[in-house]
Amino acid sequence: MDLVTCLKKMELVGVLAFATVDSEGAPQIRNISAIHYEPDAFYFFTARGKNFCKELMEDGRVQILAYTKYKEMIRLSGKAYAVVENEQKKWMDIIFEEQPYLANVYPGDTREIGIIFCIDKAEVEYFNLGVNPIFRETYILGNVNVKEKGYYITESCIGCGTCIKHCPQKCIEKGTPFVIRQEHCLHCGNCYENCPVKAVVRK
Predict the structure, then answer these.
(1) Which uninterrupted H or E stretch holds 3?
(2) pLDDT averaged over every residue in the chain
(3) 0.85 exceeded by pTM
(4) Which of 1, 138, 147, 195 has its CA 20 to 30 A from that of 126?
(5) CA–CA separation, 124 vs 15, rounded Å?
């Protein structure tokens, strides 16, 4: 798996869930399909009068979720910004050409109420529950720093094997200390809760 494949899978899913936060801190989710994909960014359409647009203009942070029939989850976390004015029509025309249904929703010049946003910097997480063991990996779109996540076993490990016994994916290997294979870890915390010497830490 890689970033290009993840973006292609998102495009094939078509309708994606976009999560934002409103001015009162409440989570908001919308399904969006008016999207155009480029290798290094993607663009999407909404109307200026919608609360979704207001939240993007005020904050910009967004999480986007795609889920495939193969039990793959792709989650993109980034910041959206409005495309510069002299490029709005270019990207709007492209999106309307790729998504013909939009002409029924915004016929004629009513599309001018729309605004195009771009995301070109994001963390993209791939998580496949359809394989055994599960598989997860993180990719980068643009220039962003990724915060390390998950569970790690420290030098305090005594090698008792309790973590292996409690791991549902059997992704912990013996060693000094034991090692969690991050690409197969569920992040469930079972090893963390059951380690008798608290050698497992959460990032």
Answers:
(1) helix 3-13
(2) 96
(3) yes
(4) 195
(5) 17
